[in-house]
Amino acid sequence: MAYGRVIAGARLAAVAAVAFAPPALANGEESEERLPLSTVLFASLEAGPAKTFAAIGMKKALTGGLADSGFRLMVKVGVSQEETQARRPHGTTYKGEAQSLLGYEWRIGSTFLALYGGTDYEGEQHEAAAGSVLLNRYGARLHGDLWMTPLTGTMLQASFYVSTINGRLWGRVAPGWLLPRDMGVGDLYLGPEIEAFREREYGKLRLGLHLTGLRLFGLSWRLSGGWQSTSDRPSEAYATLGLHWQR
Questions:
Q1: Which of 103, 106, 166, 225 has a beta carbon 3.0–4.6 Å from 239's, enabling a disulfide?
Q2: Domain count of the fold of the chain
Q3: Is the residue at 32 inside a domain?
Q4: Is residue 44 a part of any domain in this protein?
Q5: % of residues, the chain, pLDDT over 90
Q6: Coil vs helix vs strand at 8
């Protein structure tokens, strides 16, 4: 079953994230010669009244390290559970997705701009009057990321993707302002976020707040939440959690 294979892929990615963790160094001493950071492991969790989505992925520098411009490989798998329809009985739809993207990242100081292209897949399973329905969709995806600090004490993060699966368009823009640095948990930025998604006859718009840059347990965290409006449901709250780890 395609959906089962995507679920298995997500589990394997999670195991890989643990397996590739660097061993603890004796007496807390760091190695005198450390290779440049070349890999980012990332994960996200999204929750709302009608949908839960979780994803895990990896970005790998194919040339040099992450601090330098160069080619990148990005892979990601995700799973979701959501209501099939707004009216009762709601029903349940399970989805799995996977992307494999190759691109280039430009680095200038703390600013980076990346553009990727590659494959896109989605598997869907839901119950219908005639029984269980399985759908597989394949396509191509173009993805972009931007991180910059335009002014002292400010940041701007933006991402987008375009997919040939159902003509999907997605984008997120999140400016932020640096909070006082005496909190001991990294450079924290607080600000608004706006996110939009569109495919065929469905649309979603989110407006909320984000807290980016929290450092805990060796990971960098992002928390966000707010209010979303969709074309098929009443407006409702949403919350997201993202994290990444460089090695």
A1: 225
A2: 1
A3: no
A4: yes
A5: 64
A6: helix
